Amino acid sequence: MTSTAEATDPGSTWPAGAATAGGSLPGQDPLEAVRLVFGELGSLPFLPELPQRGAGADMIGRGASLLVALPVEIVPSGWRLTDHPGRDLRRANDFLSRDLDALQLQAEGYRGPLKVQVPGPWTLAASLELPSGHRAVSDRGATRDLAESLTEGVRLHLEELGKRVPGASLVLQVDEPSLPTVLAGQVPTASGYGSIRAVESAVAEQLLGQLLAVAPAGGRVVHCCAEKPPLAIFRGAGADALSIDATGADLTRAEQLDPLGNAVDAGVGLWLGVVPAVDAPISSRLVVDRISKLWNALGFAPDQLAHFVVPTTACGLAGATPGYVRRAFTVLREVGEELREQR
């Protein structure tokens, strides 16, 4: 990567040296989870998701519960749009209400950045079924209706968060793990014998941008843990930061490095998933070395690193042990502090 060694400061909502995590955690106690997050990752805390509580507390269930005027229910194959709200949706809404209550209690008087995660329109459309049993993404009109409903629901969700934690600067993390599959035309049909036709990049960017636009400027993050996330689409949609898995592929290779360098050149932050999402040996020193190696390869000034890079987890931690989660949070916090001290 050839660079000018200078980049425009992104003017992020989060402070230099901040660290955070994907969003989901093991366990079933929302108050305990919020206390852990604020205690360990107080520079950029988030509203945890606890999918071990059951359907409705998972990422797709949480996203489905935010839809406006599009009720959902659980069928053997997953979440499906339906005509009338029922107990499945009530349970999902109850999980969210409990989470918000726990957050409000723990964050009383808090002032600073606060992150919340939601599934993106394409991941939700690739996961939810229409009443016919087909994936919503197979119907372009249904996908647009779903995206509009999700956008309005997220707007209301952020409004509610602002009321409960009035001192917070809200950061919206949109999770799009399924978007590469959607773009490649690899989402299976209901029968499993075929695949749904690919979605054009411009269409994908438009609907994603529509959702990001409801978040405050400076606090729009898109997360994708796929091997080759569509970074150009995320940037075109208005992302202020790109959240990617940095534990697998060598990001210093040219095909990986150039898009990241271009993003930083444009003032876009990098949230690097440097801590595995499941139990694995980790150390602050190794993580700092990995981040520094990438930043040096990008060619930007060392004193800018902590402004642009946020260390995080590769994905959610729902599949990890509680002990590993605490260790991961400690490592992330220490890494963020060391990056800040290097300025």
Structure commentary:
This protein is α/β, with parallel strands linked by helices and 343 residues long. Helices cover 42% and strands 13% of the residues. It has helices at residues 30-40, 59-66, 87-106, 121-127, 140-164, 179-183, 201-212, 231-236, 254-265, 284-298, 305-308, 322-341, and strands at 72-75, 78-81, 112-119, 168-175, 220-224, 241-245, 269-275, 309-313. The strands form 2 sheets. Strands 3-4-5-6-7-8 form a 6-stranded parallel sheet. α2 (59-66) crosses α3 (87-106), α4 (121-127) packs across α5 and α10 (284-298) packs across α12 (322-341). The longest helix has 25 residues, at 140-164. It is globular and about 55 Å long. It starts with 29 loop residues before the first helix and ends with a helix. The relative contact order is 0.16. The mean pLDDT is 94.
